[in-house]
Amino acid sequence: MMQNSDSVDQEQNLRVRKLEISDKGKGFIELLQQLSVCDSVSDKEFQDRFNEVSSLGDDHIICVVEDELRGRIIATGSIFIEKKFLRNCGKVGHIEDVVVDSSARGKQLGKKVIKFLTDHARSMGCYKVILDCSLENKAFYEKCGFKQKEVQMAMYFV
Amino acid sequence: MMQNSDSVDQEQNLRVRKLEISDKGKGFIELLQQLSVCDSVSDKEFQDRFNEVSSLGDDHIICVVEDELRGRIIATGSIFIEKKFLRNCGKVGHIEDVVVDSSARGKQLGKKVIKFLTDHARSMGCYKVILDCSLENKAFYEKCGFKQKEVQMAMYFV
């Protein structure tokens, strides 16, 4: 596999980091639109939500991968830390909204995002990390070290 | 069905409400032990976790059903509200840790807990509520109005 040299080459221009307020101008919302419904978000709405999430500190972080040559966000994923009474007042990391830009797939960016998020959960003392995915993405998460556990049920209000 | 009269009779002694700090003395931890691993929790640990969850206000609530004649907590479930950028800065309710005391099953207490939690999510403006469950509990959640959506993946650290 040529993956290693590609990966090194990529890494020179890629940065894996937490979401910053300026990422709205780097295509963060457009990236999310590849995952689910997301109309345009105003600067004010973005800033308000950014502040709400930031107020939780390490309990809710959003990881992004920036292509620094192009100044574009090309992958993202989030995690929040749930505090339970179960498991001796244990903590669980919940991974959400993982997406890689359609033009940047096959570059292991999804794995980088998942590693960033699971490392964070481990450092926060979580006893497990969970996520929900479609059947077609199951194999990807298995490669990342996840195992299928339960079924996800949903109730939609809108 | 005789369910209605049973339910009315039950309701005279049952209260569905948010967790209170005094619920540790009413068997809340012992109830959770019917769901998963939970060794005894000290008063200090309980209070610290209670305060952490309470600090999130309406963004993380724990519902309990108290049998007021016996002074015991006989059902519980929790929900936290995740704030997203997706769905036009939408919110999602995550239901966790639903359990009904083994001596109190068949009395629709699970449904009461789920109704309390989904009502809360709706009032908070969530566009959906999700939860993970075993295949054997799927039919129960379908009766509550949920539909199977994805698969849950987990990575355990301990």
UniProtKB/TrEMBL annotation, chains A, B:
InterPro entries per the UniProt record, alphabetical: Acyl_CoA_acyltransferase, GNAT_dom, GNPNAT1-like
Residues of the N-acetyltransferase domain: 14-158
Enzyme Commission designation: 2.3.1.4
Cellular compartment(s): Endoplasmic reticulum membrane
Record's keyword terms, sorted: Acyltransferase, Endoplasmic reticulum, Membrane, Transferase
PROSITE patterns from the UniProt entry: GNAT
Annotated Pfam families: Acetyltransf_1 (PF00583)
Pathway: Nucleotide-sugar biosynthesis; UDP-N-acetyl-alpha-D-glucosamine biosynthesis; N-acetyl-alpha-D-glucosamine 1-phosphate from alpha-D-glucosamine 6-phosphate (route I): step 1/2
Family statement drawn from the similarity comment of this UniProt entry: Belongs to the acetyltransferase family. GNA1 subfamily.
Record's protein name: Glucosamine 6-phosphate N-acetyltransferase
Gene source species: Acacia crassicarpa (northern wattle)
